[in-house]
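[Backbone geometry]
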Amino acid sequence: MIRALTVAALLLALLPGNALAQQPQGRAWLALGDSYSSGEGIFNTPPAFSKQFNKECMRATGNGVPQTAWGAGAYQQVRDKFGMTTQRFVACTGAIIDDVPKELAEAREAELAEGTGRTKWDLVSFSFGGNNIKFSDVIFGCLNIRKESWGRFPPTGCVETEEQMRKRVDMLVGQTPIVESEYAGQKTLPSLFDDLTGVVVPGGDVVVLGYPNVIEDPARWSQFRKFCAGIKKSDVPMLRKTGGYLNEQIRNAVAAANLRHPGIKFHFVDIAHNPYELDDKPENRHARCTQDDWINGIRPDVGQSGHKFYIQRSFHPNQKGHTATAAVVAGHVRDNVTFDDAPRTDPNTIVAAYLTDPEQLNIVTGDGKSQPLPGIRASRGSSEVAFSRDGKWLAVNSEQKITFVDAADPARKRTVPCDCWGIAFNGDNHAASLNRRGEIVVFDPAKGDRPTRTVPIKDYIDRDNETGAAQALVVGAGRGTYLLMEPESGRLLVADNNGAMVNLTNTQSPDYPGLVAVSDDGTRVAYATGPDCSQKGPKITVIRDISFVPPVSSRSSVYNPDGDSARGTFSSLAFEGDALLVGWSTNARSEHGACGTRGAGGVWLASVPEPGAETQPGTWFQVRKDAGHAYHGLYTTPTSQSKDLWDLTDGTRTLGRNATEVWFRP
């Protein structure tokens, strides 16, 4: 009897149109989030009672109603391009990160009811964090609605300080421990990003929205205005600085998530700039108290949402704000989402390379196995090995030749003769080096034995007294720029396609070539100084606004994570979007000094100071502890505390041991 029922059930499931037989069709978008995602501030937003939350979630789904939150609006604009057939909209007003399981449960219940059985989505979007740091309570304090504001008469306005709010933001992004009295919930954004790996399909994307400034910059107010929507002029700078720091740290948390989780692409969309404050023109500014504000003031909602005196819509974006935000998000998705970010697992594909003594170059393949690269030797020094920026080629400069290895098929390689020093890929993914005549030579890695471009250096560079050979090497390149270093003098030089040069190191010289970085577009150069552990204040100098005629540039410096009095060493340096990805160590002892091996300590994201800024501590965001390098799911840990060697790992497996240098494939 049981067997008969089982067979009958199976046949029933296979019948056309039966819910059990339906499979998810097309791509799907999951819209999570808080009130800034649900559409709370839109006039007449439907209450949308949620059993999971046991309350009304105020959801502007745009599904059969005119009220359309940004997530729903963006979905409508891109669904045809990406073949999306479903959006599950479960954002809920008042939600904190700890409430995500409720939103997921609601989404999966709906999928089950429709017979798809979908448990993962191609794209997930949300805003979270404002409720965790209790921003609505802060606003109520500024409005003198909280009793704490009435400690004296007249009331004081905002209760929290800027320093207090910055600490709450640091809790949100996992940089400091949570203090229960200051923070709502126990979950952080990094923990949410980690959890989403079980919610997003391999190769999928996560779009994280920042928050707009709710009040216009008081410097732009009329001199006679003292309040905006009930908030004192003197309180607004704290609110805006908190908002700026919140967005900056969310951006850092998103960047760190991309480094931890290969196979899922995390995106940050900064709406504080676009669309809310695009520039200084009055018509392009839309916070509260502008000529066209998209943020509600104090808005009691009498009877419009099933409530009496419902004021939660206050200081939330209205429909104009959501519509403009939807357009920005849709544009970002169209331009940046590809749904092909699945991790490289092909056993024939290179994911990293590392050097072991004596001069043995090894590769790590997509299956996590390491093997020597036969027939290729390399010497220690990050300037002798490089991956192309598009990740297609690995280049090695050794023994008067450059070897190009196809990263997708390591057995496919070719060599070109070149008595030259250094190797780096420019913005066109062509390899550059400096020959002994003092010429920059540029090769196409895919074809040809001769340079596609030769750039004679017009200015003086170090040369051998006897042979006249150039004594410099290429240590970096960008689009139209080449970075040279003279080992003897320590000078760091940047040259353009015409051979004009600018000396970047008017003061201290870089530690060594591995601690030099060039941005993809070639407009910024960074280098680390202070390798001696007995010296205080190792720092990173950033050069930008480089002009060759006349030879000028602007510079700024940022100290290490421990400040200007710290002793330590930098272990790695690279540009990561608008930030710097930095390895830093102070916690080990070795033959290199009392401050530790290169590879111990941690990997950090550092903000880049504005041009002309004095040396400053900077904003530092820790990506991973006890690591020296990190890139998309791979990182290094110190082999020991007594040797300058690293092990390469993905967190569960050791992929390479005792490496003297490591290179990650982009």
